[in-house]
Design goal:
By secondary structure, this protein is α+β, with helices and mostly antiparallel strands. The protein has one domain. It has 2 helices and 4 strands; from the N terminus they run ββαββα. The protein has a 4-stranded antiparallel β-sheet. The chain starts with a strand and ends with a helix.
Length: 83
């Protein structure tokens, strides 16, 4: 099993007065993900920096960790990651 760690910035947009997921951006480091999410939250309603660990061979997720939330993020965002 070869595990790979990825850092992602998930943006959020307002659609019909509800926060919905927008674009995702792959980033090289955890610090970079936090900084990018914070910067993006100045232009979008909100963003979250995520650390994702997955099996490189099967694609099976091992863990997802929220590194930081900036601006408006849906209340159920953390729960939706566990599903």
């Amino acid at each position: 099993m070869a595990l790979k760690t990825s850092y992602v910035v998930q943006t959020f947009e307002l659609k019909r007065k509800r926060l919905v997921p927008g674009d995702r951006q792959l980033v090289d480091t955890d610090h970079g993900a936090r900084k990018r999410a914070e910067a993006v939250s100045g232009r979008k309603p909100g963003a979250a920096a995520l650390k994702i660990v997955a099996d490189n061979e099967t694609g099976e997720l091992e863990s997802i960790e929220i590194l930081g939330k900036f601006g408006e993020v849906p209340d159920d965002f953390e729960d939706s990651l566990a599903a």
